[in-house]
From TrEMBL:
Residues 70-253 form the IclR-ED domain. This is IclR family transcriptional regulator. SUPFAM superfamilies: GAF domain-like, Winged helix' DNA-binding domain. InterPro entries: GAF-like_dom_sf (IPR029016), HTH_MetabolicPath_Reg (IPR050707), Tscrpt_reg_IclR_C (IPR014757), Tscrpt_reg_IclR_N (IPR005471), WH-like_DNA-bd_sf (IPR036388), WH_DNA-bd_sf (IPR036390). Residues 6-69 form the HTH iclR-type domain. Keywords: DNA-binding, Transcription, Transcription regulation. It holds the Pfam family HTH_IclR. It comes from the Bacteria. It comes from Achromobacter insuavis AXX-A. Transmembrane segments: none annotated.
Length: 253
């Protein structure tokens, strides 16, 4: 039976969402069929149509499917309405006002976390200004750690191996430390980095998810190490989570 009409569109969108979640590694036909609860012949027809339209590509060596170039082109066309930096302004400003500390927005770029927005807090002693566009390996900053820990375990492992040679620039941080930090994030639900990315600075971070659970960014709050006491961590984490939820909801409107 051919897949057409509204049902076919819904299924195609589901496939694109699944591919977006595994953007780096890609997915096999059998993985996609199982995840979408479709037969393999039906999934094969869907993928063939998406490949023809440029919305999916298949790696000739691994036979895995990934998002295609048309998805990127469509994203560029809609970018002015879904600019993360612009959309994060109000949320980051409110969080900075409430906490008194500097807030940041990070996005993933390959194996790095990139700072794309920053709002200075009102507390007299602030953290050093992290330049917009600056990047560090995932797992080094609170934002990067929140992003890394939110990825599938297989992606985490690959990324940690890839960034291991670069971790020496951040004190005695090594791959085992990053693995342990990721495990702790999954246990407590937030990232906490102290005296790593920037000496004397502590930061907290949580991921921001869009529709269907797609990882979009990470929000962080940074303060001097002495100011970020255990009690203050417990005060800020709920505010961070609320801000991340607010931004995720905004992006779905």
């Amino acid at each position: 039976m051919l897949v057409d009409g509204a049902q076919g569109i819904s299924r195609a969108v589901l496939v694109l969402k699944l591919l977006a979640r595994e953007a780096d590694a890609g997915l096999r036909l059998v993985d996609l069929a199982d995840a979408a609860q479709l037969t393999r012949p039906t999934m094969h027809r869907l993928l063939k149509a998406l490949v023809v339209q440029g919305m999916a590509v298949q790696d000739a060596a691994t036979r895995r499917y990934r998002l295609g170039p048309l998805v990127f082109e469509l994203g560029l066309a809609a970018a002015h309405r879904f600019n993360l930096r612009d959309l994060s302004m109000a949320t980051l400003a409110d969080l900075a006002q409430t906490t008194g500390d500097t807030t940041f927005l990070f996005v993933r770029s390959g194996d790095d976390a990139v700072c794309i927005n920053r709002i200075q807090g009102t507390y007299p002693v602030q953290t050093p200004a992290l330049p917009l566009g600056s990047r560090q390996p995932l797992g080094v900053s609170a934002g990067g750690l929140a992003l890394l820990a939110a990825l599938p375990a297989a992606d985490q492992g690959r990324i940690i191996e890839a960034i291991a040679p670069r971790l020496g620039a951040y004190g005695d941080l090594d791959a085992d430390d990053v693995r342990a930090h990721c495990a702790l994030v999954l246990k407590v639900g937030y990232a906490h980095i102290a005296n790593r990315a920037v000496p004397g600075i502590s930061a907290l971070g949580v991921p921001v998810y869009g529709e269907s659970g797609l990882l979009l960014a990470a929000i962080t709050v940074a303060a001097t190490h002495n100011r970020m006491t255990g009690a203050r961590v417990q005060e800020i984490v709920p505010l961070l989570r609320a801000a991340a939820q607010s931004m995720g909801t905004l992006l779905q409107q």
